[in-house]
């Protein structure tokens, strides 16, 4: 008896595994590049007006211990940081610390963004610290598994504490200088955890889109993607979600029918996806476009949900297209936007890239971040249940096999590692004060953040929820096209930070 098409494809692909999210990583990098471009434009505006904050930015390096918890280990690594003194009111002005996450930072994170706007208002010293083992702050011994042993959020928090001491000595800071930390996504979690673990060093923390709860099977990511594509407030619809499902089913059917060459031609693949691993790569890459569009909706990174759903529901075509052809058009638009000559679907190349332990590969950050997911967080965006709008072939098993292959970390140990992370930090029920969690209603990462207040008597609100915005949208400088809910959220953040600074100043005077 023949099995169903979907069931056969699932059984075939379960025998293999793939790393997911290559296009999603590229979209994230594109978001970072776009933020840099906006920062440069912001800087140009200031320069034309006669104000030149860039002249006050300096870059430096602090030599941090490889292991803060083993004083017998003499190894160090250079950690990059930036300082912007343009707005600082010496000697007692506050300190705003921008925390780097799983990628490089540049001087522009001290020159533009909502935290910089607030720093200008409050006459704050602006700092930015790059995360250990990312960007230029790399272990000089390379990215071999043994050398990644000191890459962890706990070590990163210890870096922040040492950096606090270093900056305090360098600028002769005292208890009169109130520190506020800022971060988004993983760095948002670090901002919250820094306040929680070192409350004597940082007075308040802003944590945007912060996944403070580690989770092995993050199936709810794609569930929220589906709900967001169905959300009429942001341009989605039920017809859109249905069209997406039909399109992916059509691609799967074409592959199972042995039409890999035609599929490769239609989607401009660099390779013909005959191997099942390459077929998973193709399907994941296609899904990444939708995942990235939802995660960065209306931030100008790729397509908005409204634009994407317009294409998937044939709103702009005089002659109706079938779902498969609509998906082909989406891929064509992605490639024209990113200027990619073809779509790389080679699983072998992807694994080789992750095995690259050289220092020049560090800026790509893929190996380092995968290591952290294997050792601390999970965050595997699976697609096994009915809520996933794409396909049912990317399973938890297929993803976690990479931990064993690349780092020798057994799949059986992952649950224990993630449980420790949640116990150590408190997951999404942390007992912290003066931490502000900001999340967007269509951001899939909200599922792992703090979105509800559990207040004791006398405690202030710790949550700002923006029902119709996406990932870290609040961190950018405001624009005329911003939704009213986003503008209101920024005002609330400003009010909260102002209140913290006033309260801290009163405590110093008393």
Q: Roughly how much helix do the residues carry, as a percent range?
A: 40-55%
Q: Return the average pLDDT rounded to an integer.
A: 89
Distance between the termini: 82 Å
Strand runs, count? 10
**Rough outline:** globular
Q: Which fold name fills CATH's third level, the topology of the largest domain?
A: Rossmann fold
Order of helices and strands: HHEEEHEHEHEEHHHHHHHHEHHEEH
By CATH, the superfamily of the largest domain comes out as Alpha/Beta hydrolase fold, catalytic domain
Second-tier CATH architecture of the largest domain: 3-Layer(aba) Sandwich
Please work out how many helical segments DSSP would assign: 16
Radius of gyration: 23 Å
- Structural class by SSE content: alpha/beta
**How are the strands of the biggest sheet laid out side by side?**
1-2-4-3-5-6-9-10
Q: What portion of residues belong to β-strands? A: 5-15%
What is the topological layout?
Blueprint: H1 5-13, H2 22-48, E1 57-65, E2 76-84, E3 95-99, H3 114-122, E4 125-129, H4 153-170, E5 179-184, H5 186-197, E6 204-208, E7 215-217, H6 220-229, H7 238-256, H8 260-266, H9 276-295, H10 305-312, H11 323-338, H12 347-354, H13 366-377, E8 378-380, H14 396-407, H15 414-425, E9 435-440, E10 463-466, H16 484-509
Parallel strand pairs: 3-4, 3-5, 5-6, 6-9, 7-8, 9-10
Antiparallel strand pairs: 1-2, 2-4
Helix pairs in contact: 1-7, 2-9, 4-5, 6-9, 7-11, 13-15
């Amino acid at each position: 008896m023949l099995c169903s098409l979907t069931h056969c494809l699932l059984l075939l692909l379960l025998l293999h595994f793939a790393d997911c999210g290559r296009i999603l990583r590229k979209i994230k990098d594109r978001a970072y590049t776009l933020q840099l471009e906006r920062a440069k434009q912001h800087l140009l505006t200031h320069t034309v007006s006669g104000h030149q904050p860039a002249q006050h930015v300096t870059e430096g390096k602090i030599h941090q211990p490889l292991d803060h918890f083993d004083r017998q280990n003499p190894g160090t690594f250079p950690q990059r940081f930036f300082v912007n003194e343009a707005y600082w009111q010496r000697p007692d002005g506050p300190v705003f610390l921008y925390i780097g996450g799983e990628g490089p930072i540049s001087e522009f994170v001290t020159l533009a963004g909502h935290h910089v706007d607030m720093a200008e208002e409050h006459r704050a010293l602006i700092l930015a610290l790059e995360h250990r083992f990312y960007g230029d702050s790399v272990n000089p011994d390379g990215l071999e598994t043994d050398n990644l042993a000191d890459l962890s959020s706990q070590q990163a928090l210890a870096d922040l504490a040492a950096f606090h001491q270093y900056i305090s000595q360098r600028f002769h800071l005292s208890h009169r200088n109130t520190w506020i930390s800022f971060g988004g996504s993983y760095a948002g979690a670090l901002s919250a955890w820094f306040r929680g673990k070192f409350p004597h060093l940082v007075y308040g923390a802003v944590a945007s889109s912060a996944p403070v709860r580690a989770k092995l099977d993050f199936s709810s990511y794609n569930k929220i993607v589906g709900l967001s594509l169905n959300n009429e407030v942001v341009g989605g619809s039920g017809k859109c979600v249905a069209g997406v499902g039909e399109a992916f089913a059509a691609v799967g059917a074409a592959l199972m029918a042995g039409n890999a060459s035609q599929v490769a031609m239609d989607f401009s693949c660099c390779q013909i996806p005959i191997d099942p691993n390459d077929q998973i790569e193709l399907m994941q890459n296609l899904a990444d476009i939708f995942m990235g569009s939802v995660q960065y909706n209306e931030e100008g990174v790729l397509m908005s949900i409204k634009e994407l759903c317009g294409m998937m529901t044939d709103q702009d075509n005089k002659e109706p297209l079938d779902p498969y052809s609509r998906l082909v058009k989406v891929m064509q638009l992605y490639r024209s936007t990113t200027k990619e000559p073809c779509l790389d679907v080679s699983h072998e190349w992807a694994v080789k890239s992750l095995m690259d332990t050289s220092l020049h590969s560090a800026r790509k950050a893929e190996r380092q971040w995968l290591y952290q997911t294997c050792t601390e967080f999970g965050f595997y965006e699976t697609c096994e249940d009915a809520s996933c709008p794409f396909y049912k072939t990317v399973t938890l098993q297929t993803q976690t096999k990479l931990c064993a292959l690349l780092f020798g970390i057994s799949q059986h140990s992952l649950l224990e590692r993630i449980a420790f992370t949640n116990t150590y930090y408190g997951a999404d029920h942390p007992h912290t004060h003066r931490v502000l969690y900001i999340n967007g209603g269509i951001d899939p990462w909200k599922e792992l953040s703090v979105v509800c207040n559990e207040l004791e008597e006398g405690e202030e609100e710790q949550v700002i929820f923006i029902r119709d915005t996406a990932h870290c949208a609040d961190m950018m400088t405001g624009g005329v096209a911003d939704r009213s809910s986003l503008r209101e959220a920024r005002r609330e953040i400003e009010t909260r930070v102002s209140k913290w600074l006033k309260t801290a100043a009163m405590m110093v005077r008393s």
